[in-house]
Model the fold of this input.
Amino acid sequence: MNESNPQPKRVKRKYDEEFRRNAVALAQTSGRPLAQIATELGISHWNLRDWIKGKHRKAPVAGASAQEMQREMARLRQHNQKLEARCEILKKALGILAEPSPNASRE
Done:
């Protein structure tokens, strides 16, 4: 930076929630590039990109009912049992393969 001509400090602008929602909706429905939409709205394309990402992060998660949770738990337990059985089989196979063969020649 040049000390005789310092850069002005950038002012952080704040946008209300309605403006952000409308900008995100426009970006998602128009099919035009983010940079073009951002320029038209007088904002940075980084702002628009972050608002779009933020919308997906803050989307409410639908709660599952107790019955759905029970079914999912039962399914996961069953899957876990199958995986544990496979793991045991693989351990046994590894033990068999690791043993030296009595027919192998020793040099």
